[in-house]
Amino acid sequence: MLLPRLCVLSLCLCVATSFHKFAFTKPELALYRQETRELFYHAFDNYMALAYPHDELDPIRCQPRTRNFKDDSDLDRNDVMGNFSATLVDSLTTLAIMGDKDQFQLAVELVRADLDPHFDINVTVQVFETTIRILGGLLSAHLYASDSTKKVYLGVDYDGFLLQRANSLADRLLPAYLTETGMPLPRINLAHKYRNISPDILQENNAAAIASPILEFTLLSYLTHDDKYKQVSEYAFHKVWSLRSKLDLLPMSFSPHTQRNFNHYTGTGASIDSFYEYALKGAVLFDDDRLWRVWEDTYYALRKHCKGDWFFANVDIYRGEVVLPWIDSLSAFFPGLQVLAGDVTDAQTKHLLFLKLWNHYGGIPERWNFLAQTDQSSPEQSSVSLPWYPLRPEFVESTYYIYRATKDPLYLKIAWSILQDLKNLYKTSCGLAGSQDVFTGKLQDRMETFVLSETLKYLFLIFDEENELHTDLSNVVFSTEAHPFWLHPSSSTSYHSLRYFNDRFYSDHLDGFCERDTIAKNSVFSQAIKGISRYVSHVYEHNANDDQMPENSSTSTATIEPGMCPALKNQNDNTARFLNSPMLSDYERLFEVDYRYATTLLKPSWLSNRTSLELHSDFYDIWCWKSKGIPTCRAAPTTEIFDVSFAPGYCRVGERVSKIYGTPLSNVTIGSLAGIRMQLEALHVGALDAYGNMIDAGQIDLISRQDDNVYSTCPAVYVSGDSKQVVKRKRGEQLLTVYRATAIDGAPLTHDAVVHVNLSSAESRLGSGPLRINDQNMLMINGVPVINVISVVN
What we know:
This protein is an alpha+beta fold. The chain has a domain at 640-793. 36% of the residues lie in helices and 13% in strands. Strands 16, 17, 18, 19, 20, 21, 22, 23, 24 and 25 form a 10-stranded mixed beta sheet that branches. Helix 1 (26-50) packs parallel to helix 16 (409-426), helix 3 packs antiparallel against helix 4 and helix 12 (334-341) packs parallel to helix 15. The radius of gyration is 27 Å and the shape is globular.
């Protein structure tokens, strides 16, 4: 059926078409909003006419897409399709954000009329996907319908039934948490719980799916005052966090039955992405100090062990070494999360890699290899191991966050280019189809609900400077499905005074976990139950010790303090250069990704005429500041850069190095090398270093190799990646090579930075080992001086 709807054009003011393209004036942005709105309604109206009340629309065959009723193992379809009109429910908040009250109200009434109010549906679905798409969509739509400050507020026409539906759905999902670990099963049957579900599809759940329902479930508790949803999901969140390694790195996959982890690596993409997202957003939305500490700890660990120049790598959770040569498309969301945390400068750098992927492929491949794989049959397979792009929103999402923080017009140009690609590459006669293979341009006959819920929503918001969300100074956050959540102070006050937990079944279930965890913590055999001792507290009556760090964490409680963000120059500041894109004009590494990864950034033949969007002449001529001449790029370094990790062992672990985001450090003082991860650059005469400077003999020849002292064997040294060969080779060239620290625990250093290491007399005693101190008090590793790491003996 087709929703009766006013013509889209009648919902907009008349848009002037006489403007200078890429000046991004109000009329121009209004045009791009209108084009985005029309693209949304092209897909949404066709879904309603051709596929509703089924879950999805096939955008090529223009027919409903339903569950695979014949094959329960078809998880790609069945996990997200529960016969609950998923596209309609997931699109409610896009209608709200676009301010289309009539359409929002009509869609809400369809939910009332057609959706089973009790979700008594005989379907097995994934708990995580159903939570973020359906439960989250209902909750956010309820907030819009009941908030008198919003454009789509329904007033007396709305009786709160969306919240009641959300409540009913949560009750259907909550039994998934009734496991021996408190971590949820990945799937559940909405009508029959676990009955008739193959055990094979219940054995593994990922970190994001275990932890992430905490945001939607806790919001439900705040709105209903029934605390069981918060307590049950909160326990699971902190349980999975307790299973991290001593480096504060979390595996991606676990057994919900035994809590055993199925892999030993981590990153920021698929299977773990929403864990980080909801730690930070939960802290913001609920003013939750415990979630904030989780975010602080996990982000510090990621910056320390996973951070490269252009992306966060997949690393071993025990050693922090890169173990997988690829990144996946879902990790494109992380720069946006960095912006929310205040680390805008690094977010812009990490975002650039995904910009280059979009430049080359017209989308973000599901998995791109930054190192060519020699076992693949073709260069294309070597560079892109998973070649599809189902119109995921993560790159658009990060573009939105960075634009809101910086107002750099480059991000408006990126959004415009994405809009053009959606119209020209992916639009079909009845919807939007993703790419099955970015190398051939073949489309896939599927339009997932997130295309309307997230991709087009974030794109619309980039062009909508005056959207009501942008003037709301409250605690608004977007869920991982881009549903806006917020809590007014009155709602929070009401929850804390009226909350209850009278479901004895779930209460007893949690009490059993807490009793077992306490016994495990105090038992001499506690190591037999991995990680449990790291989270012992009654989840709905916090112990006094809840504000303490886990006992075997690798970080010190004394160093936990709010992160500091650099001040950003406002684009509207009268001291700023007029009509200027700082990234385009000033960033010297804008094209470094292109040449560094030239072997795997391969443009498909069908896009051979495609140009880099940042070099579009009409845009470049307006926004690139040329009063100092044509902007230049920094030459590629010819030095070798590698990481060295100093194992904690039994040594005293020092405080965290820095909580300052964005600004390279010039002087650093640390109490010990134990537990430190240091990025080193091997310098030799004639080399071009990472800062763009040529190394001359004076920087090398005057450095002493004579060691006065020998650093104690504590800590041991681990060298990452190809650096083992670097260290070994340079030992025979001591007079020609020195090292320089360029980052410490992920915090970048300036070219003239000095790192002082305060050593106790015991730590500097004579002994044997790879660490020595020369007669200039410089640290030496295997006989090679680190010229800017100076020891100070106390």
